[in-house]
Amino acid sequence: MKVTLIGAGPGDAELMTIKGLNRLKQADVVLYDRLVGEDIVSMIPDTVEKICVGKHNGKHPVPQEEIGSLMVSKAKQGLHVVRLKGGDAFVFGRGGEELEILCENKIPFEVIPGVSSSIAAGVYAGIPLTHRDYSSSLHIITGHAKKNGQLDIDFKSLAGLNGTIIILMGIASLENICTGFLEAGMNRHMPAAIVENATLKTQRKFIGTLETLFELSKQNQIVSPSVVIIGAVCALSDKLGT
Ligand code: SAH
């Protein structure tokens, strides 16, 4: 009886850790999310039961509470359950919530970190997230709006830090996010980037400024999953990117 929570990385199968892959091969059952790369899912041995709990083929995702009960019931059957998540499970991955359920049910667990898309997107786009000449901090935030449509972003504080701002789940609210930073006094020429499908063969990257970013996303019909990066370091992408 055990659950291993594994970060599968952002999509490129070679970014999965060796430790994560080893545990995956020892699993009895794997519960995986939509953002786990297809190449990684195909590495799960045929003998292992695979359960997709994310949105696939237009079906609704399995509700979070059901994922919790599924993990608990499978583990209580004496199975080794692997919970496989995109990126890193502790970066906007609800990994903490899932572990709390396991604690309540006295189920032993192990957590294996993954390469978060928040980091990998910049790396694959030739954007060093910190640079002694441009940025000495990075801030990973969510662009997911609350039920009332409000964003939970402290634009003023972030704009004053001169760091690199990395936004996950930011495409649907991109216009409001850019306006928020402009109204908070950030330079409209501040370099900015969007990396769609980061690390996958389908990766696209777009470099603009805080002022042009939303237009750029509309013109190119950028969709989720995408990472938005705002900060002076984005200007290095043309030089350092491939
Ligand atoms: N735990 C994940 C993040 C989950 S939140 C991690 O550490 O990467 C989901 C958001 O992650 C998406 O909306 C998108 O902003 C980002 N994301 C995940 N995979 C991505 C990818 N391959 N390319 C671009 N963005 C990605």
What does this structure look like?
The chain has helices at residues 18-26, 38-41, 64-76, 95-104, 117-124, 155-159, 174-183, 213-219, 237-240, and strands at 2-7, 29-32, 49-52, 80-85, 109-112, 138-142, 164-168, 191-196, 204-209, 226-230. The mean pLDDT is 95. The protein is α/β, with parallel strands linked by helices. The chain has a 5-stranded parallel beta sheet with strand order 3-2-4-1-5, with helices on both faces. The protein binds S-adenosyl-L-homocysteine. S-adenosyl-L-homocysteine binds next to α5 and β10.
Q: From the 3D coordinates, which CATH architecture of the largest domain would you assign?
A: 2-Layer Sandwich
Name the shape in a single word.
elongated
Number of domains: 2
The fraction of residues assigned to DSSP E strands is 15-25%
What is the radius of gyration?
19 Å
Distance between the termini: 45 Å
CATH class term of the largest domain? Alpha Beta
Work out the oligomeric state of the chains in this entry. Answer: single chain
Which features characterize this protein?
242 residues; alpha/beta; Cobalt-precorrin-4 Transmethylase, domain 1; Methyltransferase, Cobalt-precorrin-4 Transmethylase, Domain 2; 2 domains; 5-stranded parallel sheet; 5-stranded mixed sheet; 9 helices; 10 strands; elongated; binds S-adenosyl-L-homocysteine
Quick take:
The chain is of the alpha/beta class and 242 residues long.
